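Input/output pair, single chain:
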Amino acid sequence: MTKSKSKSKGFIKKIIKIFKFWPTQGENVEDLEKIAAQEQKQFPFEILVAATKKFHHTQKLGEGGFGPVYKGKLDDGREIAVKKLSNSSGQGKKEFQNEAKLLARVQHRNVVNLLGYCVHGAEKLLVYEYVVNESIDKILFKSGKREVLDWKKRYDIMAGVAKGLLYLHEDAHCRIIHRDIKGSNILLDDKWVPKIADFGMARLYPENQTHVNTRVAGTNGYMAPEYLMHGHLSVKADVFSFGVVILELISGQKNSRFKHDPESENLLAWAYKLYKNGQSLDIMDPTLVSSAVPDQIIMCIKLGLLCTQSDPQLRPDMRRVVLILSRKPATVALEEPTGPGYPGSRYRNRRPTASSSTAGTSGESNSRSFGSTTNTKSATATASTSGLKSPIYDPHGKRPVQD
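Output:
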């Protein structure tokens, strides 16, 4: 056990040394290959071909903007998930390198475990542990089996994802903003423990900056309005996405496809309307009736609304979220949430205090509108602590994807 831990620590130290400074694109793959080979993290291409039955369509688990994911089985009996870089993906190579760098350094119970990677000519692949119960998105919205997720499981999923995000935001080797927290990127293992997956869009977050302005990349229905419309990125963007996931877990409704109430623009607006009318429990998924803990559900609805507030500075950070979810509802005093954020909503842009390390906005105090239509163009990436600026749009950047 001690020998195994020492070896793991040695691998992490070497990875940190390699990525202490961001290498150039050419050096990136070479360095990854060198370290992986030394630590036996590099998988021979032939092994992955055999494990996935030549990447047969029956082994395919899914496909995103990055590329297809296949289930495989190694000779030693381990089940794996192999993410294959799509040759048609314009930004796929960068995302591949990004995910490999990040996950090689991330170790947490609620973050998916990267076993290794493979570079074979034009082929680039990431090898993960196989997570048996797939994603909460698939279970809730696509399998017809949402009843297997009773209230206790859903509550534990919220708590686990919150702990994973807290680790990424505050406790990892450097602060990481995931940028694409959603149901399909939260996998469940055989004990229903949630694991945050898919770091292809993640960004390292400078410790001495309150935010960065960056090219927009994410999934419609989960992106915070200040990020979607202006490319303004802080840890509060992940908090917003997490709030959407909370409300989806409680309601069984998908925000990006919400049609339950014709008078509400989306799930967030519907949940907020019912909350203000004293009818919070009306958003509860009917399959939860037999397992529901009403006080907990009401607390979580309020927490979800706090996380999705239009003003990013009013959203709680993940440390506070974890603390709230660890307590009994009767011992938690939550402030009243303001209106949820979505295209067309407003927030008041405030000047952050010196102690505000996770402030969502900065600069002159003014009122900002996010328009009534979804803008899917991408902003030129710049690091900034100045006032919120409208980005220069890059026609070659990655667009937000529909989920």
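The chain is about 35% helix and 15% strand. The radius of gyration is 21 Å.
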